[in-house]
């Protein structure tokens, strides 16, 4: 753990940001990703066969790159009733939230004379579902349910091929949502294939979903060829707590994000409580003993867990907005009073009965959120990500007459005579 105190160190917040945002990967990650993308573009399926063997340890032929979900019977999958019920329960909550937050076309005045906007779903979207140390079954729901709610007809899941096949819960979730297919190509080569296409892989228009630093860099590099949702890398949590916070809850919540498996996750506590500041290290150590052995979790505790003592809750909010975390929990006496001050975060969880993992699984809003400070400029995944916004204009002659003089003046100022004539000619007939 790394400790800071704003009272004794005026530079504490900046030190936190410097340490938290320090580069964790080797300097050649960008070039490594670029090399793989170039290889896939030039060598297509042959490159994918090599990378599946190299990175995922599987031999896969092009005819098996895709799993056609139309051929899968959900009832035949080896899952318990408890598991299928949990997946359906979560899907219902996520899908209902996705529909509730779906953007609506703006109103159009009858008889014309309006400027409006309509939303049109993308034709094809691919959602990346990590399946490295842990198969992120919930990510199927927290991505594809929003794509489905947007009205996209062609949905693909990208996930690494495993020696024992795709996890049946991923297949089940994809099936009940109505996903069309699963592309069994992981990491950078899967992203590159979906973006540029190969002889076997059909390119898509949009790629969404979280992943490790390499997946995030790959999405960044294919942006422009396809649209992307955001840069969503290793997970983060910030807990804002005062003296009313339960220290055991705080420790558990910090650890919840430390176990994702990359060792690059981050957990930050910003607190006004001296007692919590003094005891949190021992509380985390106690609860760590109850968890499975994990070198990556221990790495997060050592180098990615930051504890900062602030003087006021307002200062905690300022620290939060500077850090811009993926998730922030407000464990204070009156969380809804502090919430309006939080303006840069992927998701806000308020009060002791809203632990962050509820948002990961079943709350309803997507758990695909910006990380690494990207919450200052990106929003969490939502239905509008998968809909193109198109403006609409419709005027009659009388309305155009009222707009004519200003439009012709702009054409004169910008030396665009053909623009001006396009307007004036309509009144010379």
Could you walk me through the main structural features you see in this protein, from its secondary elements to its overall organization?
- This protein is of the alpha/beta class and 429 residues long.
- The protein folds into three domains: 2-23 and 234-363, Nitrogenase molybdenum iron protein domain (Rossmann fold); 29-103 and 121-230, Nitrogenase molybdenum iron protein domain (Rossmann fold, 3-Layer(aba) Sandwich), CATH 3.40.50.1980; 396-427, no CATH class.
- Helix content is 42%, strand content 16%.
- It has helices at 12-20, 29-56, 81-100, 137-150, 168-177, 187-196, 213-222, 247-256, 274-288, 295-304, 313-323, 335-338, 356-361, 397-413, 417-424, and strands spanning 2-5, 66-68, 114-121, 124-128, 154-158, 181-183, 206-208, 227-228, 236-241, 266-271, 305-309, 327-331, 347-350, 387-394.
- The chain has a six-stranded parallel beta sheet with strand order 1-11-10-9-12-13, with helices on both faces. The protein has a six-stranded mixed beta sheet with strand order 2-6-5-4-7-8, sandwiched between helices.
- Helix 8 (247-256) links the parallel strand 9 and strand 10 (266-271).
- Helix 3 runs parallel beside helix 4.
- The longest helix has 28 residues, at 29-56.
- The relative contact order is 0.14.
- The model has no long low-confidence stretch (mean pLDDT 94).
């Amino acid at each position: 753990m790394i400790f800071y105190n704003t009272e004794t160190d005026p530079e504490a917040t900046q030190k936190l940001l410097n340490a938290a945002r320090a580069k964790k990967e080797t300097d050649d990650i960008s070039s490594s990703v670029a090399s793989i993308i170039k290889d896939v573009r030039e060598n297509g399926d042959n490159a994918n066969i090599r990378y599946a063997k190299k990175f995922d340890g599987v031999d896969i032929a092009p005819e098996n790159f895709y799993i056609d979900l139309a051929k899968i019977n959900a009832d035949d999958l080896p899952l318990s009733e408890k598991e299928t019920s949990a997946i359906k329960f979560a899907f219902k909550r996520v899908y209902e939230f996705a529909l509730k937050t779906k953007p609506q076309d703006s109103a159009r005045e009858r008889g014309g004379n309006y400027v409006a906007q309509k939303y049109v779903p993308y034709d094809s979207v691919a959602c990346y579902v990590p399946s490295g140390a842990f198969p992120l079954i919930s990510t199927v729901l927290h991505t594809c349910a929003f794509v489905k709610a947007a009205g996209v007809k062609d949905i693909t899941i990208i996930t690494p091929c495993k020696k024992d096949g795709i996890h049946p819960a991923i297949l089940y979730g994809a099936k009940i949502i109505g996903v069309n297919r699963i592309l069994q190509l992981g990491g950078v080569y899967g992203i590159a294939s979906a973006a540029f296409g190969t002889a076997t892989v059909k390119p898509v228009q949009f790629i969404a979903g979280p992943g490790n630093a390499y997946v995030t860099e790959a999405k960044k590099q294919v942006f422009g060829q396809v649209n992307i949702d955001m840069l969503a890398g290793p997970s983060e949590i910030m807990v804002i707590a005062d003296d009313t916070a339960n220290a055991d809850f705080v420790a558990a919540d910090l650890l919840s994000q430390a176990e994702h498996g990359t060792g690059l996750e981050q957990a930050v506590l910003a607190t006004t409580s001296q007692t919590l500041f003094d005891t949190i290290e021992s509380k985390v150590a106690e609860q760590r003993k109850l968890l499975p052995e994990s070198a990556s979790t221990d790495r997060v505790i050592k180098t990615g867990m930051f504890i900062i003592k602030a003087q006021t809750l307002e200062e905690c909010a300022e620290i939060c907005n500077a850090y811009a975390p993926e998730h922030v929990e407000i464990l204070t006496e009156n969380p809804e009073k502090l919430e309006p001050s939080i303006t840069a975060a992927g998701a806000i969880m308020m009060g002791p009965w809203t632990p962050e993992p509820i948002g990961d699984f079943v709350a309803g809003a997507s758990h695909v959120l910006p990380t690494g400070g990207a919450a200052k400029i990106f929003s969490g995944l939502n239905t509008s990500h998968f809909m193109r916004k198109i403006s609409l204009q419709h005027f009659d002659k009388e309305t155009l007459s009222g707009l004519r003089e200003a439009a012709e003046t702009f054409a004169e100022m910008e030396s665009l005579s053909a623009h001006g004539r396009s307007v004036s000619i309509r009144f010379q007939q």
